[in-house]
Amino acid sequence: MDSNELKFLLKLLGCRDYRSSLAKTFDSIKNKNKICQDLGTRGLVDYSREIASVKILPPGRALLKMDTTQLPIAPNDLKVLEALGKVSAKIAPSKISVKSVKSAERDTILETLRDRGLIEAEIQIKRQKAEVWLTPRGQEFLRDDYNPKGLATISLDLLSNYLKFLRKSLSADTLSGTPPKPETISTQKPQPTLSLPTGELNDDLILQAIRDLDRELNTNNYLPIFHLREKLPNLSREQFDQAIYRLQRQDRIELSSLQEGMNYTPEQIEAAIHQDFGGPLFFIIVN
How far is Cα 58 from Cα 62, in angstroms, rounded to an integer? Predict the structure, then answer.
């Protein structure tokens, strides 16, 4: 971690709830947008996002060639997809002209089409009123894992933010009776499985398993499905997929497709829920 990235995180520690406007707080840091994105990629911060450009994918074009009256797609979603089908290059959302669709609804539709794997969407930091916040993983990193080395010029104000953060964390651990985190050689422990009989794995238990895994793995409500499959070995692939679809129909979870697979193994990608149209459903978001 370079000194500017560290300063970025320490400035966040001085903000209420470790959250701030990106425009106001970080003006003194060069390349603040790039630093924000780099820290976000590592899971240490998150920030307000918007779709910068979109492009229809082959599954989207294939859907347009079918009898759309028989497909589960909303009329306005179809109109936006048809508009994208008329261009071959990437296009900004503002350039999509559908008279019956307002801009706010258009952005929601684009997110839906992206999650279904029908379009490709380039995401950027929100241009207006963007906010950035420290994630639970970022707090854990600064509290337990960060080990500074070398020389850097850090203001006493930023150092004060760090010390207050550490003291607050120590006080919380003391009040809760949580022992200090021990140093360990092992970097990962196997996840326990739910070994109940299949008939006892009802939807509520599965939803709780999703929440537990998200908390244990610090996936920030964006849990890759392969983790849940590993936790529920008693369910066949079909039983698992149907249970996930039930939770989705009940609006208890949302599913998102994988846009970039370079960070996952072929086995992990294969564990996703595959669709006839669109990319594999790879992430679970609890509503």
Answer: 6
**Distance of alpha carbon 191 from alpha carbon 78, whole angstroms:** 41
- Reduced to 3 states (helix: H, G, I; strand: E, B; else coil), residue 90 is coil
Instruction: Return the closest-CA partner of residue 100 out of 77, 129, 134, 126.
Output: 77
- Please choose, from the candidates 148, 168, 159, 133, the residue with its C-alpha nearest in 3D space to the C-alpha of residue 43: 133
- Give the tens place of pLDDT for each residue, 135-167: 888 888 888 888 877 777 888 988 898 899 888
The whole-angstrom separation of Cα 35 and Cα 41 is 10
Quote the radius of gyration of the chain (alpha carbons, Å).
22
Structure tokens at 256: 């998102």
Its sign, for the CA torsion 210, 211, 214, 220, is: positive
pTM confidence score:
0.54
Count the Cβ atoms, other than its own, within 10 Å of residue 9: 24
Report the pLDDT averaged over residues 112-125. Answer: 86
Indicate the pLDDT class of residue 261, thresholds 50, 70 and 90: low
